[in-house]
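I have been asked to look over a protein record a colleague put together. Alongside the sequence sits a line of tokens, each denoting a local backbone shape. I have pasted the whole thing underneath without changing anything:
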Amino acid sequence: MGAEDFSRFLQKAPGVFYFLGTYNSSKGCIYPNHSSRFSVDESVLKLGTASLAEIAFSFVSE
């Protein structure tokens, strides 16, 4: 269910679907996405940005 209908898009064009985990119990970031108590450990966002940039670079380098 996590990928929803994304697999249909991938039949037409190359792409990727992945999850960036932001769980961090020491910062209280322990609740799921649809919880009213959901919060994000923003320190991981730089890793998510870097991974997206690497994926894009790999795609255009081939």
Observations:
- The mean pLDDT is 88.
